[in-house]
Request: fold
Amino acid sequence: MAEIRRPDDMVRITTPELAQAFIDEQIALVKEQVGDKKVLLALSGGVDSSVVAALLIKAIGDQLVCVHVNHGLLRKGEPEQVIQVFRNEMNANLIYVDAVDRFLDLLAGVTDPEQKRHNIGEEFINVFAEEARKLDGIEFLGQGTIWPDILESEAGIKAHHNAGGLPEDLNFELVEPVRILFKDEVRVVGEQLGLPAGMVYRQPFPGPGLGVRCPGAITRDRLEAVRESDAILREEFAKHGLEGKVWQYFTVVPDFKSTGVTNGQRSFEWPCIIRAINTTDVVECSVEHLDPAFMDHLVQRITTEVDGINRVLYDFTPKPPATVEYE
Ligand code: XMP
Reply:
């Protein structure tokens, strides 16, 4: 099949009308490409895969099989949101795979950041391939490839994972309906497809998920402290009008403990680090300076509501010299 490229004179999709025209065009193209065959899609709940899912549901209905792998490193409420939006509201053919124990057992004791990333990526493909092999009649693989992925892979910056790095016997033809779009266009299309704003305009979230925010060897209790503190931070940012204003914000719970006083008793617990940054290209980032009273409130909530945390720290370091994530 000839490589589909973004036309040089393509008008940037910024309005519901332009988005709808794009959706109609893609629905026709997908129908033509797929016919009456089935398409498999790994649906993480991220912007790109969610928009592809919503578009393919419109185009081919239950010929689309979505697989959502819960690897235990997702944020609080994410698997539930995927099920709610796609299975309950959009009637998607959705396979939910609870692979939490499998991933956390595999990652137990693994301290090296690159090894952790590698294990998470490889196990994801193993789980997805297992699900794919259980299904009959799949000929296509849906992918949320976007135009910057193509440009970056051509520039040698990023390896473009053709067919998601699946084993060779799973030789699917790709369906990439948002391939010629920039990220901002994908969001406009997603909104037009009826996806919730919280899903379409969400902050960037790395593939290895909370795994890289639980530095060193991941333990279930420390991972829960990351998940709970992250949920509080997101809730408070939303309440204070910072959602959609600050580029990326999250918590990290490092693998060391310090002394404190909890309920009149000496405690020995983890600190929780808050990171909130702004950027345009993620090559350089500045730190969002929070209102001191708001910081006090965050400290109060996190230290009282999250098990195992007795201290909250704020990271004032820009990128460079620091990176956004901790590993
Ligand atoms: P760093 O930490 O490199 O992060 O300054 C820059 C941006 O990339 C995200 N990030 C990742 N995304 N897989 C991803 O999909 C990863 O392994 C990964 N590491 C970092 C990070 O969240 C930030 O937006």
